[in-house]
């Protein structure tokens, strides 16, 4: 069931439909758009996201031709359009504050643009009926705009802008007036319409969930500039800055200082075997020696995360096969190995990436050892960075952290749904004690606001699979929050 993924932006041979080339827009001495370059491809559903006043509407107005460009060029379908008047552009725009003709019926409002272009009454009639069906407005066709609700009026505006089947449709907050449920339904309708008509949509929204739902790609803007342009999943899972991480969704941001993670796994700071006593705070990291290996039971107790840094036979085998090449044979008598250099780690990572690309090692393959290639999933035993984030607190292990950040101030960005909360100390690579200060019950999930020993607040989320009465964590409880060593993203500011 191979399905081709729609990703024209990855294809060097694809020509973009829209190209902003070093576009600057100034109003007097105020710069609304600042030397911005952006490509949007045919059939994309492209979302512009950003705080109020960051320049989203200005971008759209320049595209539609209602606003001049101060510097730079805009290309549309291979043509420089900056001197093409709005009515000659194959673009339609649904404005943030759309206006319907109050004296015309809904039917006539939708037909208005078509009548100006064509005299073919039958064609116009068919098209209007189709648009009414598409936006579920058929039964309101005869009413005037003041006789329908705000949400319905918004759908009329949408039907009107789609009626002429533009090549490019610009939608500025098209669903702003709809209630949440209708809004969500309309989002899916919009996606359907976009797919069936093959129109390229550029949408402005202040609702990040909406952008995530409908868009093929999202551009996050700040003060007339693009901060990140990527697919929704990348924007969410791999934001390129604290700004983006904070703007999209709920996030924990933990500032600290990065340092290289020793090649030998540090003893799991919150070693699972010390677990049962939730006596809060710092168990100072013991030196990394073989003796820190947890007793065999730890393996059986920890099926949840096979990446738990717990040396065992397989770990030893992998070390000999893979890491020994870079780090030398391990001398058990003098266990402190020098940490690998960034170069060594980069080489190890490259080897791993190559192996992954060649599709050889899988976690299953690791169980039945095959020679040479480093099995996937073992990388967390070393490499990456540690983040010192609070006095007297164990560092946070970040296996996917860039070793080039060594010594730098960084911020760990971690989504609440990747943070677990437990009454018993869990067996996870990063475990921190705290106290429940607040619980936000959202029906399907609950968000726990946990104060750590350092005073920092961290949000953890739990899916409410059980009925309310069966849930066990409550206000003031001493709890453990936990997350894996790859759950967060390290951002440099
Ligand atoms: N005609 C104008 N004259 C002067 N300044 C303007 C003009 N139009 C827009 N601006 C300014 O340019 C900036 C960008 O405005 P724009 O309307 O593009 O913001 P936006 O991102 O669409 O915001 P919102 O989410 O509130 O709609 C704002 O600071 C705004 O005040
Ligand atoms: Mg706007």
Provide a count of the helices: 12
Q: Assign the CATH architecture of the largest domain.
A: 3-Layer(aba) Sandwich
Return Rg in Å.
Answer: 28 Å
Poorly predicted tracts of residues? 270-311, 330-339, 359-380
Residue share in helix: 25-40%
Strand fraction? 15-25%
CATH topology of the largest domain: Rossmann fold
Spatial strand arrangement across the major sheet = 6-7-8-3-9-10
Number of domains: 2
Give the class from helix and strand content and strand pairing: alpha+beta
- The CA-CA distance between the termini, in Å, is 42 Å
Q: Outline, from the CA principal axes?
A: globular
Report on the biggest sheet: 6 strands, mixed
CATH class of the largest domain: Alpha Beta
Small molecules held by this entry: adenosine-5'-triphosphate, magnesium ion
Could you state the CATH homologous superfamily of the largest domain? P-loop containing nucleotide triphosphate hydrolases
The chain-level mean pLDDT equals 80
Number of strands: 20
How is this structure best described in words?
Mean pLDDT is about 80; it is low at about 270-310, about 330-340 and about 360-380. The protein is α+β, with helices and mostly antiparallel strands. It is globular. The longest helix has 18 residues, at about 180-195. It has 12 helices and 20 strands. Strand 9 (about 215-220) and strand 10 (about 225-230) form a beta hairpin. It has 2 domains: about 10-250, Rossmann fold (3-Layer(aba) Sandwich); about 260-380, no CATH class. Helix 3 (about 120-135) packs across helix 4 (about 150-165). Helices cover about 25% and strands about 25% of the residues. The site of magnesium ion has 4 residues, from helix 1.
């Amino acid at each position: 069931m191979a399905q081709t993924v729609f990703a024209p932006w990855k294809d060097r041979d694809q020509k973009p439909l829209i190209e902003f080339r070093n576009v600057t827009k100034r109003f007097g001495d105020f710069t609304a758009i600042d030397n911005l370059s952006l490509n949007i491809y045919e059939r994309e559903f492209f979302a512009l996201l950003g705080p109020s006043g960051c320049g989203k509407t200005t971008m759209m107005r320049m595209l539609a031709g209602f606003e001049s460009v101060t510097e730079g060029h805009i290309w549309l379908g291979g043509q420089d359009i900056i001197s093409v008047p709005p009515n000659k552009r194959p673009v339609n725009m649904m404005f943030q504050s759309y206006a319907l003709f109050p004296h015309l019926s809904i039917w006539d409002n939708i037909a208005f643009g078509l009548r100006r272009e064509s005299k073919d009454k039958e064609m116009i009639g068919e098209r209007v009926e189709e648009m009414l069906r598409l936006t579920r407005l058929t039964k309101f066709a005869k009413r005037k705009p003041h006789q329908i609700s705000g949400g319905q009026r918004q759908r009329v505006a949408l039907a009107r802008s789609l009626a002429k089947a533009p090549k490019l449709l610009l939608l500025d907050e098209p669903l702003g007036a709809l209630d949440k449920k209708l809004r969500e339904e309309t989002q899916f309708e919009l996606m359907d319409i976009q797919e069936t008509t093959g129109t390229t949509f550029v949408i402005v929204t202040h609702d990040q969930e909406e952008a995530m739902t409908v868009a093929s790609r999202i551009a996050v803007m700040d003060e007339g500039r693009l901060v990140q342009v990527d697919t929704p999943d990348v924007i969410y899972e791999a934001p390129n800055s604290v700004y983006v991480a904070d703007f999209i969704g709920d996030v924990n941001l933990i500032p600290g200082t990065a340092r290289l993670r020793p090649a030998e796994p540090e003893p799991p700071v919150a070693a699972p075997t010390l677990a049962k006593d939730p006596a809060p705070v710092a168990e100072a990291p013991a030196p990394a020696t073989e003796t820190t290996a947890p007793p065999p039971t730890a393996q059986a107790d920890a099926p949840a995360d096979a990446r738990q840094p717990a040396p065992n036979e397989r770990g030893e085998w992998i070390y000999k096969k893979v890491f020994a090449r870079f780090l030398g044979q391990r001398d058990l008598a003098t266990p402190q190995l020098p940490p690998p250099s960034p170069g060594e780690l980069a080489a190890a990572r490259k080897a791993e990436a190559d192996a992954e690309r060649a599709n050889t090692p899988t976690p299953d393959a690791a169980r039945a050892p095959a020679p040479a290639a480093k099995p996937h999933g073992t990388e967390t035993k070393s490499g990456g960075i540690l983040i010192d984030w609070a006095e007297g607190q164990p560092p946070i292990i970040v296996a996917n952290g860039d070793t080039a950040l060594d010594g730098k101030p960084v911020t760990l960005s971690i989504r609440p749904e990747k943070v677990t909360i437990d009454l018993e100390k869990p067996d996870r690579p990063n475990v921190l004690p705290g106290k429940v200060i607040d619980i936000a019950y959202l029906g399907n999930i609950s968000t726990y606001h946990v104060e750590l020993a350092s005073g920092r607040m961290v949000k953890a989320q739990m899916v409410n699979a059980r009925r309310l009465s069966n849930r066990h964590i409550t206000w003031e409880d001493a709890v453990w929050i936990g997350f894996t060593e790859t759950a967060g993203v390290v951002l440099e500011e």
